[in-house]
Specification:
509 residues, alpha+beta, Neuraminidase, 32 strands
């Protein structure tokens, strides 16, 4: 199980990068993430922002350099390629305004010096929205892009030692020309996914290119891969990041015009398992960040770091971690601070209903006094304080019912309609069979309220609390330990299996 955690000010020091999309972000070994360029409010950027992983510090280095026009570094741009080899970041192409770029730069991140490179051989044409990857510790392969007039399907290999470009001659069937795709080296193959094809359709195909490794003596050739599993929908402007035994795909956009508000933007996470060679949906326990495209996703240790992007209307500057459930920062999701997670609107509305709340409080006070008096006669102290919110009936708990009706397990009655009671029963059955490690965060609130509701139904009658509840609440007993919790945000990760176990015991046979 993975969780999305919005970066906290305590995660970093220094100056965070400005909002942007169409930028690049590369890992320099395990020590740095370097962000370059991008676009915000129709303004193209040329700044560098660096995240020092060891010191958890963002900073903007003072770069030196000398280009052909006496500039220090590359001109402002977005939708370029950037590839890291050792301590060097190579940058090619991109767009500034309506101009496609064809210049070639390298940044030495040890001394923060830019150099414009004069390359040789088969020089690629100026382009944006291409994709590239490194291989063999010294070479870069680039595929596709858009030159302002046509979509491209050419393959270029750059030797970063000799600075010679070679256009790769590929036999056999070719992928449709495209731009806005991803290109990722996996073992000895270049994997290309998605993008926008000639004529404008959004693509959802996966291709593998062999013949890049000279020692293999393979004839270069493309193969279309059709892998099993739940693959991603067609898209472009997404990211694919290598981590462990899988490749992680996130975001992108579907149908519509380039960066227009009519596009369908995505925030799903799909992995390509390198071991089983199949697509899988990444199980996540809470809601993902806002849908976006032309963002960046990099690996920082065992975590993924998401930054920036565009959703057709807004340019993002937020930073998010994608982490496993063992990561300590997951505890933030269960913080009691109201700023950490959005408040439940249905419960807020219920709280504002002062009449029902007062009635509930009066009834509760009467039950509480009865228990306290009984405790005095027994010579023990019994606490039966209510949860922070009134226990709401199933039919008044809108979030509970909405979740119940959304389940595919709900079967209609003979009338052809699903009653509220049937929906509630289906949701309870759904929870009774749930793996505690997989329960989504958004279901914890309704689950906790239903747990408290079942306790109320089982142990409280119009005549007051039953003796069975009092007995199980004596010191040394663990039963119903979550009855007094005000909010699911007070739960710890290791509380969830216990809560589900108690919940299952409360369900009627």
């Amino acid at each position: 199980m993975h969780y999305w955690v919005k970066a906290s000010p305590s995660d970093f020091s220094g100056t965070l990068p400005k909002p942007r999309s169409g930028h690049s972000a590369v890992n320099i070994g395990n020590s740095k993430v370097v962000v370059f360029g991008g676009l915000v409010d129709k303004k193209f950027l040329s700044d560098i922002a660096v995240y020092d992983i060891d010191n958890k510090l963002w900073f903007q280095p003072e770069c030196t350099g000398n280009g052909s026009d006496d500039q220090v570094g590359p001109s402002p741009r977005a939708f370029h390629i950037a590839v890291a080899i050792d301590c060097h970041m190579f940058v090619f192409g991109g767009r500034s305004g309506s101009k496609r770029m064809g210049d070639f730069w390298v940044l030495d991140t040890d001394i923060w010096q830019w150099s414009e490179l004069t390359s040789f051989g088969d020089l690629p044409s100026p382009r944006d929205f291409a994709a590239a990857s490194s291989f063999g510790n010294r070479k870069i392969v680039m595929y596709g892009g858009w030159d302002g007039k046509k979509w491209l399907s050419d393959v270029y290999v750059l030797d970063t030692m000799s600075l010679e470009w070679t256009e790769l001659s590929v036999a056999g069937s070719l992928p449709p020309p495209r731009c806005g795709h991803t290109a990722t080296m996996l073992e000895k193959r270049l994997l290309v996914y998605g993008g926008r094809g000639g004529g404008g359709p959004i693509l959802g195909d996966l291709w593998a290119l062999k013949g890049l490794i000279e020692e293999e003596n393979e004839t270069p050739g493309w193969t279309q891969l059709k892998l099993p599993g739940q693959g991603p929908s067609p898209r472009c402007g997404h990211t694919i990041t290598s981590g462990g035994h899988y490749l992680l795909l996130f975001g992108g956009h579907g149908t519509g015009g380039w960066l227009s508000r009519y596009d369908v933007y995505h925030n799903d996470s799909i992995v390509l398992d390198r071991v089983t060679a199949q697509w899988k949906r990444l199980p996540t326990g809470n809601e993902a960040p806002s849908a976006r495209a032309y963002h960046s996703m990099t690996c920082v240790g065992s975590r993924y770091l998401l930054f920036g992007g565009f959703d057709g209307k807004s340019t993002f500057g937020d930073l998010w971690w994608l982490v496993t459930e063992e990561d300590p920062i997951v505890k933030r999701l269960f913080s009691t601070s109201p700023n950490d997670l959005p408040q439940n609107k249905d419960l807020t509305t219920l709280n504002e209903d002062s009449n029902s709340a007062q009635e509930s409080e009066q009834d509760s006070q009467g039950r509480h006094n009865a228990v306290v008096e009984l405790g005095k006669s027994l010579g023990i102290t019994i606490s039966l304080s209510n949860p922070g919110l009134p226990v709401v009936g199933e039919m008044e708990d809108k979030e509970f019912l909405n979740l119940a009706y959304s389940l595919s397990e709900v079967e209609p009655s003979i009338t052809g309609r699903v009653t509220q009671i049937e929906a509630a029963q289906a949701l309870r059955k759904h929870w009774s069979n749930y793996n505690p490690r997989l329960i989504p965060l958004k279901e914890l609130g309704p689950l906790l309220r239903d747990y408290q509701r079942l306790i109320t139904h089982k142990y409280f009658t119009n005549d007051g609390p039953q003796s069975e509840f009092i007995t199980t609440s004596l010191p040394g007993k663990d039963a119903h330990q979550f009855y007094h919790i005000n909010s699911f945000r007070q739960l710890r990760m290791d509380d969830i299996p216990k809560l589900l176990a108690e919940y299952n015991q409360l369900l009627p046979d």
